[in-house]
Amino acid sequence: MVSKELGEKAWKCVADEFMERLQQHQRYLFHVAYRLTGNTEDAKDLTQETLWHAHRKSNKYVYEKSLKAWLRTLMTNRFRDQKRKKSLHIVTLDDTFIQSEPPPDAVMSVEEQVEQKILLEHIKKEIRELPEIYRRVIILRHYHGLSYTEISQELDIPEGTVKTQLFRSRKMLKERLSRKLER
């Protein structure tokens, strides 16, 4: 019983010491975060998230390596993950989204309806600008609702080719929309 209490005290002491070491790098982390995000509030949030994440992952830190470099890597990865999640959320291209009408059970505010309509127009414009080989499979799949087999028969191409062309056209659309939304 006594050795268990000593073990817990020792662990708490190590955790407190690690937290102090993390706090020593807070100012440095804020400067890195500011360069990544470009504004003070996001930089503060990213700094706090990184410190919290580092504290949770303290068992993964190798003490022989630079704490500063480890923290910078954690922060950069966290920033990239957040940015990736935001861009993926914005330009998700699935069967239900590309359809011209929102689902009837969707309850959206006027602002959300306008934003969706604008985004849908951007998507339609980008689809029109795709090379013919990719545009036709997107239109048949998302606007006419044809299955892979039906598209294959309609275009007289193998089903595997249909899947490949759909994958490539969606990827192309996603890249184009991401670039436009970043501007």
TrEMBL record:
Pfam families: Sigma70_r2, Sigma70_r4_2
InterPro entries: RNA_pol_sigma-70-like, RNA_pol_sigma-70_dom, RNA_pol_sigma70_r2, RNA_pol_sigma70_r4_t2, RNA_pol_sigma_r2, RNA_pol_sigma_r3/r4-like, WH-like_DNA-bd_sf
Domain of life from the UniProt record: Bacteria
SUPFAM superfamilies noted in UniProt: Sigma2 domain of RNA polymerase sigma factors (SSF88946), Sigma3 and sigma4 domains of RNA polymerase sigma factors (SSF88659)
Domain RNA polymerase sigma factor 70 region 4 type: start-end pairs: 124-173
Transmembrane domains' residue ranges: none
Keywords: Sigma factor, Transcription, Transcription regulation
Domain RNA polymerase sigma-70 region: 23-87
MF GO annotations: DNA binding; sigma factor activity
Signal peptide (UniProt feature, chain positions): none
GO biological process: DNA-templated transcription initiation
Family statement drawn from the similarity comment of this UniProt entry: Belongs to the sigma-70 factor family. ECF subfamily.
Protein known as: RNA polymerase sigma-70 factor, ECF subfamily
Species: Lihuaxuella thermophila
Lineage, uppermost ranks: Bacteria, Bacillati, Bacillota, Bacilli, Bacillales
